[in-house]
Inverse folding.
């Protein structure tokens, strides 16, 4: 069974940076668009960044544009989210998945907490 494993979250002060990683077992995502999503308590997951694997083209939510960068590593089948200039309102659990997401691919996510 394919698993997506997110890592790299943590506690950081406002203005700081974190780099999230997403690795997948048993599957290549070269035919997919991949996304990073986040979920605030009591809310639905929202898409913050997406990447079309083959072309490398990217899209971002307005709230993170200019601060977050999604990228991929073809050799390791990994997807990354570089988050700079973090704000307290970025505090959430972050997940990766295909875009649109596949229900059976949701992982545990990684908690990002930004203190003011």
């Amino acid at each position: 069974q394919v698993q997506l494993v997110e890592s790299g979250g943590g506690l950081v002060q406002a203005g700081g940076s974190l780099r999230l990683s997403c690795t997948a077992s048993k599957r290549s995502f070269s035919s997919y668009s991949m996304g990073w999503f986040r979920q605030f308590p009591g809310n639905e997951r929202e898409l913050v960044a997406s990447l079309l694997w083959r072309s490398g083209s990217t899209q971002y939510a307005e709230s993170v544009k200019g601060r977050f960068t999604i990228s991929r590593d073809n050799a390791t089948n990994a997807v990354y989210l570089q988050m700079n200039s973090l704000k307290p309102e970025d505090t959430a659990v972050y997940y990766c998945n295909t875009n649109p997401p596949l229900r059976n691919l949701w992982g545990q996510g990684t908690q990002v907490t930004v203190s003011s």
The beta strands are 4-7, 10-13, 18-24, 33-39, 45-52, 58-60, 68-73, 78-83, 92-98, 110-115. The radius of gyration is 13 Å.
